[in-house]
Each structure stands twice: as structure tokens, then as C-alpha cells.
Design brief:
With 131 residues, the chain is an all-alpha fold. It contains three helices and no strands. The protein starts with 11 loop residues before the first helix and ends with a helix.
Length: 131
């Protein structure tokens, strides 16, 4: 009894060309994926950070200025926190949807820093008067 096993192989050049095509497709996919995340994640991150910084300055200045006007600290704090959520949403969407990214980000980041600095100065003035 004779058993004949026949194995048909594709030419090596065909196998290598298919492997190269798969590698090329995966490289193209990864570069496209990285480009996509860089283009879509960048604006979200900068809008989130700008909104957070602006809201931080807004809350600090609101609490300090309302305490200066004679409100109780906790009343001023609760009022500022209640206003913080809509302020954050407005600034976030403004930064995310704006076409003039440099100007809007400069206004949001600079405004947040300036409001925080003004609240620190106002707080030091309050503490100097109270002491």
C-alpha cells in the first residue's frame, strides 16, 4: 500500500508580498489612528484645561469679592460653586467650538490666571485689614 501526500505551496514571492501588504496596512492603520486621536483629543484636552483654569479663577474671585462685600464665607462659596458648573460648560464649549483657537485659549487661560491673581491679592488685603 502506497500513500501519496501532495502538498501544494504558493510561491515564496506571493507569500512575502502578502505579508508585506499586511504589515503596510497595519502601519497605515496605526498612523491614521494616531493622527485621528491627536486631532480629536487635542481640542478636548485644551478646552477642558482652559475651562477648568478659567472656572478656578472665577470661583476664587467670586468667593473673595463677595466676602469683601459682606457675605458670609459659606454663602459666597456655595454661590460660586453653583455658578461654576454653567461657567465651565460655557467656556468649555466656547473653546472647543471656536475657530480662533489662539485668541480664545489666550483669553481663557489668561483670564483664569488673572482672576486667580486678583483673588489672591484681594484676599491678602482682607487679611491685612482684619489683622
Amino acid at each position: 500500500m502506497t500513500v501519496i501526500i501532495s502538498i501544494e505551496c504558493e510561491p515564496l514571492s506571493l507569500v512575502l508580498s502578502q505579508a508585506n501588504r499586511r504589515i503596510h496596512n497595519s502601519v497605515v492603520f496605526m498612523s491614521t489612528l494616531l493622527s485621528f486621536t491627536r486631532q480629536s483629543l487635542g481640542p478636548v484636552v485644551t478646552a477642558f484645561l482652559g475651562g477648568y483654569l478659567f472656572t478656578w479663577g472665577f470661583v476664587a474671585l467670586t468667593v473673595t469679592s463677595t466676602v469683601t462685600l459682606g457675605w458670609g464665607f459659606h454663602t459666597a462659596e456655595h454661590t460660586a460653586f453653583l455658578l461654576a458648573f454653567p461657567v465651565f460648560l460655557l467656556v468649555f464649549f466656547w473653546l472647543f467650538l471656536s475657530r480662533k483657537t489662539l485668541l480664545t485659549h489666550a483669553v481663557a487661560y489668561g483670564g483664569g490666571v488673572l482672576m486667580t491673581a486678583a483673588s489672591v491679592w484681594l484676599q491678602s488685603m482682607l487679611l491685612a485689614q482684619g489683622a
